[in-house]
Amino acid sequence: MTKIKHYDKLNEFITDDTWRIIFNQFLDAIPYSELRDKEYLEVIGATYKLLPENYLMSNNSSLVNPKKLYALFKWYKNANSRDTSIVQYFPEYEQRVDFFHTDFNSNYGIYAYKKKGLVKCAQELIKNRNSRRACFMINNDEAMSEDSIDKLCTNAVMFFIKNNTLNMCVQMRSSNILTMLPYDIFMFCVFYYQVLEMVSSKYHDLDIGIITMQVGSLHMYKKDMKEIKSTRLLVQSGIDDLYLHGGMIPYGYSHTKITPAIENILKQLAENG
């Protein structure tokens, strides 16, 4: 299939294999007629897999901005539905996030941390390593109602232990491959490592598995293309030795105390970015 030059040029900017593979699979699934004429491109029922240690998906800071990563990490960690600090880094959230609703919000930290979704998943697997019930829900009927401005993009997060590896599945309603996918995957990988840390208290030899993403609508808007600039490396010289396989897990790190390690490195990146 012949790609139009506009997208070929973007592809040249991508220097990390994880994002490039997903992006190319996305384009390969779209008829050429749609590539030429549509204001947005969309793949229905997209499925892709990635390794958790590759959660820094691209070192192009136009795609993955370190300050935005750090802000999102802190926003989720605080798990406060009324916390509007994220708008400074994601201005579009001002119109899309319901900061005054106490029952649902696009801050997934509410479900992962405040409602203890990750802890409950870990406890379920510790109780039964073969369980299919290590799952927490994010989306709900009220969020998707006509009156809601906060249409949650993620439906559910699930964990499984299979062949002595911890695997994760994320089911999403919708995801923008340019503006939100790298940030979504970053936080899902953080969730993965936090559950891995907890279940490793019982299963000491557990291996790192695969994260499978299933997206109802994986899409991109042509208007977002102008935001993607030529390659600007996110990883500064002198910090490179902290990275493993393009991700942000320090060499030799065990599964314990992973959250402070991630936060510390994110802070460094934000200060240098």
List keywords for this structure.
273 residues, globular, Thymidylate Synthase, Chain A, 35% helix, disordered N terminus, alpha+beta, single chain
The neighbouring-strand order within the major sheet is: 1-5-4-3-2
Distance between the termini: 37 Å
What Rg is obtained from the alpha carbons, in whole angstroms?
18 Å
Share of helix, binned: 25-40%
Rounded average pLDDT: 76
The structural class is alpha+beta
CATH fold label: Thymidylate Synthase, Chain A
* Main sheet specs: 5 strands, mixed
Beta-strand proportion: 15-25%
Counted by DSSP, the helix tally is 9
Low-confidence stretches: 1-15, 230-256
- SSE pattern, N- to C-terminal: HHHEHHHHEEEHEH
CATH superfamily: Thymidylate synthase/dCMP hydroxymethylase domain
Count the strands?
5
Overall structural domain count: 1
Shape field:
globular
CATH architecture, by name, is 2-Layer Sandwich
CATH first level: Alpha Beta
Q: Your description of this structure?
A:
The chain is of the alpha+beta class and 273 residues long. It has a single domain (5-272), classed as Thymidylate synthase/dCMP hydroxymethylase domain (Thymidylate Synthase, Chain A), CATH 3.30.572. It is 35% helix and 18% strand. The chain is built from 9 helices and 5 strands; from the N terminus they run αααβααααβββαβα. The protein has helices spanning 5-13, 17-28, 32-37, 66-78, 93-96, 109-114, 117-127, 181-199, 258-272, and strands spanning 40-50, 135-137, 154-162, 165-176, 207-221. It has a 5-stranded mixed sheet with strand order 1-5-4-3-2. α7 (117-127) crosses α8 (181-199). The longest helix is centred in the C-terminal third of the chain and has 19 residues, at 181-199. The radius of gyration is 18 Å and the shape is globular. The two termini are 37 Å apart. Mean pLDDT is 76; it is low at 1-15 and 230-256.
